Batch of 2 targets.
Target 1
Amino acid sequence: MNDSHDVVLSRVENSIAWVSFNRPQKRNAMSPTVNRRMLQVIEELEFRDDVGVLVLTGEGDAWSAGMDLKEYFRETEAQGLKATRKAQSEAYAWWRKLRWYQKPTIAMVNGWCFGGGYGPLFACDLAIAAEDATFGLSEINWGILPGGGATKVAIDLMSFRDAMYHTLTGEPIDGRKAAEWKLVNEAVPRAQLKKRVVEIADILLKKNPVALKAAKDAVRRVKEMTYENAEDFLIRAQEAANFFDDEGRKEGIRQFIDEKSYKPGLATYDTKRKR
Ligand code: COA
């Protein structure tokens, strides 16, 4: 389906959209072409009924080596402020789209993940890495601060000490350390990476999709709120979800209370069955 020269590949299999950076010869560095293409690809997938979860990964031995130093930085800066701002907005646009994506998203980090790569890494709801993947805020190593949101990602996900160490030293860490520092949910041996990601995707595919979207947005929104504001926001968010999917919630209650066919503490109700 995809042109082999496409810098982004995608395919849908068993309700999972597999989207991958496809510039392995450049370690999947994000050029303006990649950024423009990525937005098109994820927009095309977002509202499809055959897509329940999106997985973002990389072809070859890289997830993404971050922003393309030549095409994203040097060449656009050479064209002046307008070109620089345009390139930034193209990159930020697809990361933002992904942060608020309609479907849950998983970063499957198969290799190098540097600098600007932390934008889409954070944009994905969950992240699973190969134990031997390599992460780094390498900006300090080539003379800039981690921009494009990367510093914010570091301090949002990691402890103050780990974020500061990671930012100032530019030392790479492996997938295990990334899991320990909470940059990713977990790290698994490379041979099991895809299997584990499919396992998690399958858990998500069984959930009520309206509830999933409401819940993932709520996690991101309430992080910035006071307790009082969060309490109020969550009431409104649930009521808004009920407006479109009141039956789903009632069916979940019915299967437990009346039918006794599952226990919500231990499993998910059968979303395929509606009265
Ligand atoms: N921007 C532009 N080009 C990049 C790139 C990037 N971020 N990362 C890799 N490349 C290019 C290299 O220039 C090289 O191109 P060439 O074949 O035309 O010479 C090609 O990709 C392969 O890179 P190479 O360094 O030879 O691969 P490696 O496997 O030995 O090392 C990395 C992989 C990721 C450790 C190394 O490429 C690297 O440090 N990249 C930069 C990472 C970075 O700082 N990113 C943050 C940007 S915000």
Target 2
Amino acid sequence: MDNCIFCKILHNEIPAQKIYEDEDAIAFNDINPAAPVHFLIIPRIHIPSLIECEKTHQQILGKMLLLAPEIAKEQGCTDGFRTIINTGRVGGQEVFHLHIHIIGSKDRLPTMIHKN
Ligand code: 5GP
Ligand code: ZN
């Protein structure tokens, strides 16, 4: 995808602090971290968001989810972390290349879902 910032990171056209790479996915630190650990896992194929995912993406979705704890532990998250996938306008998605946020800290993260 020509104008996709994450595709550009994938193809080394713009720099990023990559922390993991394999044939299907990469992970790199978020440029504007929300916590001491904040990285993104993205697939090598350009899928705009979770809404566009189909049965054929089952394997890469599962793989990305299993990579989350593996890389999180390597990054020092030994006592848990948060995973977020923002989807579409309502989900507040800003970059339209599917990504999982992994956010970690030594302290408990702030409550994200507030109920009435
Ligand atoms: P979204 O709101 O789409 O779920 O999150 C996009 C994330 O990508 C944001 O947390 C933002 O800080 C991060 N981001 C946007 N542009 C870049 C970039 O050029 N490099 C890196 N490393 N992260 C980026
Ligand atoms: Zn892309």
